[in-house]
Amino acid sequence: MLRLQGGPGSTAGRLAEQLGVSVRTVYRDVAALQAAGVPVYTESGPGGGIRLLDGWQSKLSGMTEVETSALMLLGIPGLAADLGLGAQTAAAEAKLLGLMPLPLRTGARLWRSRLHVDAPGWFDTADRTPHLAAVARAVLDGRRVRIGYRRGRGVVTRTLDPLGLVAKAGVWYLVAVHRGRTLSYRVARVTAATDAGAAADRPADFDLAAWWAASAAEFDRSLLRFPCRVRLSPAAWRALPAVVGVEAARVTPGPADADGWVRVELRLEAEEVAVHQLTALGAGVEVLAPASLRAGLRAVGDEIARRNA
């Protein structure tokens, strides 16, 4: 019924292939739907097939309990409120639940009451984004937007073709095109947002998630300018991504020695950053080069030993 609903219909053979059943089973199911009062009918001959009465819509969504519960997670209250859609999200959720049979409704509300998403990291506070709703409206309506953007101690004006919004760790970013370049703008730095009086130019094949992933990886790589060589214990090698970041840890180690230690060529942000990061590996790291980094790590160790003597 869901395959046919809202469409031009289909042949029994095509339905059988899509559903993984025999043509005979399709015809038995059509008969069962007709007996249940669903206005489904068949037409023979060229251009014929199985169809639902034009304009007919089922009041049943066909969703399972798990699917309904998962749908409730889309309306994460914090994000909806940030976008100025808190009331609308609550209303839509109430209407959706009102259409559901009681068992599905109960399961969905259980998920809502027992799962909370706290996006910002520990010890962080969410950005203040008074212009997020206006930016989001430009994104959703496909309108060119003119923003004031805080840069350093001043404010610059930019006219942008918005492509999408990204929420990362409680921080909102606008992805938009400015003078042919696709860039990201932290929404908390937007000081004003107004309609620029034209439709946005948005490529039809733009993939927001793919662009963000590639952009984030490229940004991480651009920071890694300090080469160093280290020797790591098995535990330190396993902990390396959490200490220096996934992109910096995306390296191939040399062969392990008798104790399981490996040599690794790394590129980190800067020497002072490397000292701070590698110190977190404790006794599981030995710096082989450069000598200045080795001395820096030794100085930290000496200071720790002195203070804890």
What separation lies between the terminal Cα atoms?
A: 76 Å
The helix count comes to 11
Strand portion, in percent? 15-25%
Task: Return the CATH architecture of the largest domain.
Answer: Roll
Order of helices and strands: HHEEHHHHHEEEEEHEHEHEH
The largest β sheet comes out as:
5 strands, antiparallel
How many domains? The number is: 4
The average pLDDT score comes to: 86
Count of individual beta strands = 10
CATH classification, class level of the largest domain: Mainly Beta
The 3D shape can be described as extended
Notes on the protein architecture:
Residues 227-303 form the WCX domain. This is YafY family protein. The protein has 309 residues and is of the alpha+beta class. The protein is 40% helix and 24% strand. The protein contains eleven helices and ten strands. The protein has helices spanning 12-19, 23-35, 65-72, 77-82, 86-99, 102-114, 132-141, 208-223, 234-244, 271-279, 291-307, and strands at residues 40-43, 49-52, 143-151, 154-168, 171-178, 181-186, 190-199, 226-232, 262-268, 285-289. The protein is extended, with a radius of gyration of 29 Å.
